[in-house]
Structures are given as C-alpha cells and as structure tokens.
Design a protein that fits this description.
The chain is mainly β. It has one domain: Jelly Rolls (Sandwich). It is built from two helices and nine strands. The N and C termini lie far apart (about 30 Å).
Length: about 120
C-alpha cells in the first residue's frame, strides 16, 4: 500500500447501475471500496436492488455521509429514520431504503461492502 493514494469519483474504478434509477461510482482506496451513490427519485432497494442481491432485505453494512437529497431507511425490526444533507449514518444489515421526494439522494458510503449492487 502506498503512503498516499488519491482517487476521484469522476473517474471510478467501476460503475454499478441501480436498474435505471441511479448508480454507484466505486473507487478502491487503500484496499477499501468507497461508493459514491446517486439514487434517483423513485429508487427503492426492494424494487431496484433486491433482484441483484437475491436477499429479502439489504444485507450490507453502510457507513455513509449524505451530500444531498433524502433517503428513508426501515430496518427489519421496524425501526425507521430519514437521512438528509449533512447526516452521517451507520446502517446495519437487514433493511430497506428509498428516496424521499423529487431530488436525487447522493451519498458517500464507506461501509466497505464490496459486493453492494454488484450483479
């Protein structure tokens, strides 16, 4: 590993589509995947990524920072919360999530779940 590694999401190592409702630009820094996600209005995990993941709920662990837009998260336990600009959130496995409103939700996910949205 280099002492200094800098990458830009405008030139990702990989791009993963969210079934025509956005995408994740993936950069790997110091061996850790970082996902710059753009979730378009109408995007919902259970509709757009569940077929890719093949699980009943999202099993990824997320540690994310929301840049813009809003996203609602509902845990399998029923606990819910809404993420908006400036929020930092830790989300455990077992959840659904969807964009709230008519603005894309843009976030940076440092959760390190390398297989997220990978078909």
């Amino acid at each position: 590993m280099a002492d200094l590694e800098i990458k830009n999401v405008a030139e990702p190592d990989e791009t993963r589509p969210f079934a025509a409702k956005g995408n994740a630009a993936v950069v790997t820094v110091a061996g850790h995947p970082v996902l710059y996600g753009t979730f378009e209005p109408g995007w919902r995990w259970s509709e757009h990524l569940k077929p890719i993941a093949g699980t009943d709920s999202c099993q990824a662990t997320h540690l994310l920072y929301c840049l813009s837009g809003r996203m609602r998260v509902e845990m399998s336990s029923g606990e819910q919360g809404e993420i908006g600009p400036g929020d930092v959130a830790a989300i455990g496995p077992g959840h659904d999530a969807w964009v709230v409103g008519d603005e894309p939700c843009v976030s940076v996910d440092f959760g390190g779940y390398a297989q997220y949205a990978k078909g």
